[in-house]
Amino acid sequence: MRSVTKDNITEVFTSYLGENTDPRVREVLSAMARHLHDFAREVNLTHEEWRTGIAFLTRAGEITTPERQEFVLLSDVLGLSSLVDMLHSTPEATSSSVLGPFHVSNPPPLAFGGDMKRQYEGKVVLVEGTVRGTDGNPIPGAQIDIWQTAPNGMYSSQDPDQDIHSFHGLMTANDKGRYAFTTVRPVEYTVPSDGPVGDILNAAGRHPWRPSHLHYIVTADGYRSLVTEVFPEDDPYLDQDTVFGVRDDLVMKYVEQPADSFPDGYELSGTVKGTYLRVDFDLVLAPSI
Fold first, then answer.
1. What tens digit of pLDDT does each residue of 160-204 get?
2. Global confidence as pTM
3. How far apart, in whole angstroms, are the C-alpha atoms of residue 272 and residue 278?
4. Which CATH class is domain 80-285?
5. Domain residue limits, the chain
6. Which site from 98, 182, 273, 287 is most exposed, i.e. has the minimal number of CB atoms within 10 Å?
7. How far apart (Å, rounded) are the C-alpha atoms in residues 235 and 237?
8. Pick from 177, 159, 176: nearest CA to 168
9. Pairing of strands 114-115, 178-184
10. CA distances from 24 to 15, 29, 67 (A)
């Protein structure tokens, strides 16, 4: 079309889509163009601002590596990752939350009651719970992929001094759907802010901090996979997570316990000399159908 104007360019774009365009592709591209064009018109986007945006995207591509995905980080700090999670969460199930960029594939097996603390300093944390369906029934054999930061606030994939599988483990729920492991309390940390996403945070007067949390990926036959995080109620960044990952039902409580109450049958049983922290958190999966 020759007579393209600022007012009809969105309709012209849509008219250029071929007859055989997949319906979902047509829907997504049309909506994307509509919102993108409306944005440019609303803010009267200048050439200089357009060039700045292109340069930003170029830098994001240049800084991205297999260990660091700047575009995912951008999606996180803009709230898009969390919005997609919330759009597809099941109300009766545990809320999903952001995967984050630090998950390591092929985590080592972690036995029921196994320990991830190893040689690290810090108070022992005992985490327990039941994996169950929305009908309330336990799910024996559910797979629980667990990971977290070390006490220095770094994940194993960030820290050359850690083993790559440090603070990672894959557990199978027992015949009652129960899971249990020991670790140290994760700490709050900052998302990478030395790249273009950090420039956005600085320009917006935002901090890069995340509250401390435990990560889970939970899978079981016949159920939707759950990717989520669990946050302590006393974390200073609970109400200002820079990637918007906190949900009401993902907030838990560390309860201090005397050493003599530590249960038998766990890897650290008989070795805990001081007080420890206990967490009880159930994970609820939605059926896949």
1. 888 888 999 999 999 999 999 999 999 999 999 999 999 999 999
2. 0.90
3. 13
4. mainly beta
5. 9-45, 80-285
6. 273
7. 6
8. 159
9. parallel
10. 16, 8, 31
